Amino acid sequence: MGAPAAGSSRRCCVCTRKRLAIWMGALGALLLAVGIAIDPAVNWLVKMEVKDSVMLTSTSSALYDQWQNPSIPIYMTFFMFNVENPEEVFDHGSPPFVREMGPYVYNELRIKVNVTWNANQTVLTYRQHQTYIFNQEMSGTNTEDDQITTINFGLCGLVGLLYTKGLAVKMAIDGLLQAFPKEKYFMTRPVREILWGYKDPLMSALHLVDNTIDPIIALQQNDSAPDWQFDSKILTGKEDINQVVRYIQWDGFTELPYWGSKYANMINGTDASQFAPDVQDDFIAAVFVDSIYRSAYLLYHSDVSVEGIRLKRFTIDPMLLANSTVNPDNAAFYDFGPSGVLNMSTAAGAPVFASKPHFLDGDEIYRTNVLGLHPVREWHDTNLDIEPITGALMQAAKRLQLNMEIRNDPYIFRTGKTPYAMLPIFYGNESVCITADLAGQFKDQVYTPLIASTAVHWSGIALGSIMLLVCIVLVALLVRERRSGLDLSAYNVNQGEDSALLGKGQTWE
């Protein structure tokens, strides 16, 4: 009676292992399939959600509030260059020696007004109201009343305009200048006037002759009314998400009137606050920089992080600052001198040039002609740190230096012996960094589902693989038993028969 019971138990055990192998295989395959599929599925869903969120098709668009009135603090920090030896420069032709003064920090407020869409929500029209409010706390002991010695902008601009004129014109202007004995080639004025403007005596006199000449000289605009601006238009991304927030018109211009070719006058790129989603290392960040009236291109530099968010850092393409010999495309921008500066004279109506602060990446001649400059890449380069999933700008330092081309003219007495130089006036650092609160919201909305899907992805693959491995082992054991004909119950029966034939105590030899 014992042997059949043992065989039945063994058959039951085999059936249990078969069922276990089937269940383990099915469940393992399911977990493996889920693990493999969930990551790309969630990534796809997140991309679709991001695409919908960055389109600017209505006031209810997720991006609209931050675009229309950013809650992330924006700061504009100015560093002024004080000429320490104006008499030596004027009287003896010594190189100017400058001392950097600052910081002078301003809160920058950007508000878009008069926002409208076209009929199919593909184009958005607006005007931007941009103002600056002095931040005394962040400026420390520096104030807007600090006195800065620099070149006389009006007189320098006039000398620049007369540089190619004939002797008679120059002598006539020199005679006119005798009526303004207080107007020297170098002037001392407070920071607020140098930045935001002052009524220039010489320009005021010329205004009486030609009312198109503005008597106010201002290096920076501090708008108080959107009526001062014209319409700008951007793409909403509805037709092509890769074109989201790209300019098609800026301040009334569909193309600029300042440069020497249609290509140079094109308005390309965004305002740098947002780019197309899914930013890769080969992405070229196209930005229209309104302060220099031209488009710029930034290339991938490195990966960085802020507030636990992974970002891609982009820096200015070196070819942007190259002269026309190195980069023939820059001939249309009139960049014929040594590399490192951008010629803004046509747009500004004065011998104004832009550069990186302290002439970083510029020709050494600029720092030879002006002493006291010491470029440091960490302090003086421009960086845009873009979140690659959404294309949003999360951290930035946009640094730009304004310079004036100074020289003497033997027929204009007021220029003295001033040597030729590219004199830095100031540089600005427009900076922004996402706050901890906004970073937390971003991570909850974007990172959390991705992290969860990644966890499920690898857990599913791991558990599914283990269960399939166990299934394979069980199947292998079952196949092995079947092939060997090993049946424990039959083996026990045969053992009993052998014992009966041999008799008690006997064994096979």
One letter per element, helices H and strands E, the order comes to HHEHEEHEHHEHEHEEEEEEEHEHHEEEHH
User: Helix proportion of residues, in percent?
Assistant: 25-40%
**Biggest sheet features:** 13 strands, antiparallel
Number of strands: 17
Number of domains: 2
Poorly predicted runs of 5 or more residues: none
Structural class based on helices, strands and sheet pairing: alpha+beta
GO molecular function, one term: scavenger receptor activity
Family: Belongs to the CD36 family.
GO cellular component, one term: membrane
Pfam family, one: CD36
What does the secondary structure layout of this molecule look like, with pairings?
Elements: H1 2-54, H2 64-68, E1 74-83, H3 86-92, E2 98-117, E3 123-134, H4 136-139, E4 147-151, H5 153-162, H6 167-177, E5 186-190, H7 191-196, E6 198-199, H8 201-209, E7 216-217, E8 232-235, E9 247-249, E10 285-289, E11 294-306, E12 309-316, E13 341-343, H9 345-348, E14 352-355, H10 365-369, H11 377-380, E15 383-386, E16 393-406, E17 421-433, H12 436-484, H13 488-502
Antiparallel strand pairs: 1-2, 1-17, 2-3, 3-8, 4-5, 6-7, 8-9, 10-11, 11-12, 12-15, 13-14, 14-16, 15-16, 16-17
Helix pairs in contact: 1-12, 1-13
Transmembrane segments: 20-38, 455-479
GO molecular function: scavenger receptor activity
Pfam families: CD36
Fold and architecture overview:
The strands form three sheets. Strands 1, 2, 3, 8, 9, 10, 11, 12, 13, 14, 15, 16 and 17 form a 13-stranded antiparallel β-sheet that branches. A two-stranded antiparallel sheet has the order 4-5. A two-stranded antiparallel ribbon has the order 6-7. It folds into two domains: 21-67 and 447-494; 73-434, no CATH class. It has 13 helices and 17 strands. The protein is of the alpha+beta class and 509 residues long. It is elongated. Belongs to the CD36 family.
